[in-house]
Amino acid sequence: MAEGRLPVIVAKPPDPFTALKINGKVTADWLEAFLHDELIVRRGIKRAVIGLSGGIDSAVTAFLCARALGPKNVHAIRMPYKTSNPSSLADAKLVIDALGVNERTIEITAAVEGYLQFEPDADPRRRGNVMARARMIVLFDQSTKLDALPVGTGNKTERMMGYFTWHADDSPPVNPIGDLFKTQVWDLARYLGIPQSLIDKAPSADLEADQTDEGDLGITYYKADGILSLMLQGFPDRRIVEAGFTPEEVALVRRRVDGTHWKRHLPTTAMVSATAINEFYLRPVDF
Amino acid sequence: MMNVALVQVKPRKGDREANFAALREIFAQLQADGKPDLIVLPEAAMTGYFLEGAVYELAYEAHAFVDRLAAEWRAAGGKGEVDVVSGFFENDRGTYYNSAVYATLGRHETRVVHVHRKMFLPTYGVFDEERFLSRGRRLSAFDTKFGCAAMLICEDAWHAIMPTIAAIKGARLLIIPSASPGRGLGGDAELESVSHWRDLMCGHAVEHGIFVLYAGLTGFEGGKGMTGSSCVIGPTGDVLAQAPALGSCIVRASIDLADIDVARAALPLLGDLAAVLPDLLLDDELPLPRGHAGSLDGTQGVRERRG
C-alpha cells in the first residue's frame, strides 16, 4: 500500500502553439522538392523570378528557390517606390549577397505615378493596391523575358487575414510558403541561416511611411498565429479564449478571416449550365 | 522464400501511355536484377491520384487493365510468370471504383486473381473520392500461389477493423497500395503523416502476425506531395525495408511466410480474437445488420470470368 497522499499527475491544457512547431530540415527539404517538382518536372522551367522586398517572406522564398534551382537560376527583383524605406533595399541586398542570385532593381514610381496622376485624391489603401499590382506587372513581364516562373511569397497568416492585394501578391502560380504561418516562416528562416537582422525587423508592407503589419492588423503575429491555428483546427471561440487569448483578439481575427473568404478564391462566375468550369467540369491544376 | 518488389513511382498525371512505357522499363530492371515473385504498385499507379472528373476518361475495365500490364511485362522481356498488384481506377459497366487488382502475368496466359474495391473513400478535407467513385462492399481474403492474401487501399488501412477482418478471414499477407499526401511538419525527421502510417501498419502486423506490403505513390500533384515511404513489415511489427518519402525507387525483400507461425506462437492474439469474436459480434448493441446480406459488389463476377 502507498503511504500518505499519492502523487497526482494532471494532463496539461492544449497548447495553441503545438501545431505551429516545425522541423526546419523536414520543412526546407519538402519545400525544396515542391519547387523542383513544380518548376522543373511539371513545367520544364529552370528559372524563378522573385520580388525581393527586404522582408522575411521573400527572403525565405529566395533561399528555398536557390536550394531548388541553384542561385544562378534565381532572379531577385527589387521594386522600390519613391516612398519605400531605403533600408528595404539594403535588407534585400543582404539576401542577394548571401545567396549570389541574380539581381535587378526596377523602380515602379513612374509606372505608379503614370496612373495616380489622374487620381490625386487616392487614399493610402488605393495607392498601396496600385503599387502591389504594378509590382506584379513587372514580375510577370520579367518572367516572360527570362523564361522564368514568378514565385509567390505570401504567408498563411496574411492570406487568412486577407492582408494582401487581390490579384497582386497572390498571383504567382506557385508559392512554397503559402501554407506556413508567419511565425513558422521565422522558424524556417532561422534554420535556413537567413541574416538575423531580417528576422528581427518588424514586418512591413512598406507601402506607407512607418507602416508595420502588426500595426495594420491590430494584433501581433505571435498571437494571430496561435488564434488562427486553433480556429483552423475547428475549435470554437470559447476554447480559443480558454487557451489564453482575449475575446477581443479572437473576435478581431475571426472578423478578418470571415470578411476575406472571397480573396482566397477565383472570381465568382454565374453558373448557367451543367458543364460550368470548376463546378461541374472538374480537372486538377496539374492535369 | 518469397521475393517481393515494391515499386514506388510518380506517374505523369493522366498520361497512361507514358506511365505504361515507364512501367515497361521498371519491369525490365526487375527482370534484370532477378525476377521477383510479386510486384506491388501503388494506388492509381498509372494515372496519378487526384483526377477529379478525369477519372471517367482514365478508368479501365479490370481485365483490360491486367491485359495491359501483361503486355508491358512481355514487352520488357519478362520470362515466365510473375504476380502483380496494382491500384487503378476501375470502370465496371459505368460504375467507377478505386480498385486494386492481384493478377498473374505470364507469357501466354494472364489471370485476374482478385479485385478489391476501396471501401473507405476519403471525402473530407483535401479528399473528394466519393464525389466521383462508388465504394466497394466486401473485403475478401484470397488464395495466391504463396498463401492467403488480402488487399486494402489507403484509407481502408486506417480502420483497424479492416486488417482484423482480413486476418480473421485467413490473410497472411496484407498488401496496401496507397497514395498519401503528406501533412505535418513537426516530426523529428519526417512528415508526421509518414510516422502515423508506419505506426498504424506496424500495429496491424504485430497484432495479427501478418506481413504488410505497402507501396506508395511519390512526388507532387498540384502542391500535394505524395509520401512514398513504401515498406515491408514483418509479422513481429519490424520494418524490414522502407523507401524515403520522395523519389521513385524499388524496395525489395525476401520474406518467409513461415515467420508468421513463429510470431503467432509467441503472441497468439489472432487466435484469441477468433475465440472471442463471436461474443463481440453477438452484442446486440452493435449497429450490425442481423439478416443475411448478399454481396453487392460484383467482385466475384470478375474472378469467375477468368479465374
CATH level 1 class label of chain B: Alpha Beta
The strands making up the biggest β-sheet of chain B line up spatially as 5-4-3-2-1-14
Oligomer description: heterodimer
Tell me the distance between the termini of chain A. Answer: 68 Å
Count of helical segments of chain A? 12
Tell the overall outline of chain A: globular
Major sheet details of chain A? 4 strands, parallel
Q: How much of the sequence of chain A is in beta strands?
A: 5-15%
Q: What would the CATH topology of chain B be?
A: Nitrilase/N-carbamoyl-D-aminoacid amidohydrolase
Number of domains of chain A: 1
Range of strand content of chain B: 25-35%
Extended strand count of chain B: 14
- Counting helices, strands and paired strands, the structural category of chain B is alpha/beta
Please mark out the parts of chain B with pLDDT under 50 across 5 or more consecutive residues, or reply none.
Answer: 298-307
CATH class of chain A: Alpha Beta
Give me the CATH architecture of chain B, please: 4-Layer Sandwich
CATH homologous superfamily of chain B - what is it?
Answer: Carbon-nitrogen hydrolase
The arrangement of helices and strands of chain B along the chain is EHEHHEEEHEEHEHEEEEEEHHH
Mean pLDDT of chain A: 95
Write the layout of secondary structure elements.
The complex is a heterodimer of chains A (287) and B (307).
Chain A: H1 24-42, E1 47-51, H2 56-69, E2 74-78, H3 86-99, E3 102-105, H4 109-116, H5 124-146, E4 148-150, H6 156-161, H7 182-192, H8 196-200, H9 213-217, H10 221-232, H11 237-242, H12 247-258
Helix pairs in contact in A: 1-2, 1-7, 2-7, 4-5, 10-12
Chain B: E1 2-8, H1 16-33, E2 38-40, H2 55-58, H3 62-75, E3 82-92, E4 95-105, E5 111-117, H4 129-132, E6 141-144, E7 147-151, H5 161-168, E8 173-178, H6 192-208, E9 211-216, E10 218-221, E11 224-227, E12 231-233, E13 239-242, E14 249-255, H7 259-266, H8 269-282, H9 299-306
Parallel strand pairs in B: 1-2, 2-3, 7-8, 8-9
Antiparallel strand pairs in B: 1-14, 3-4, 4-5, 6-7, 9-12, 10-11, 12-13
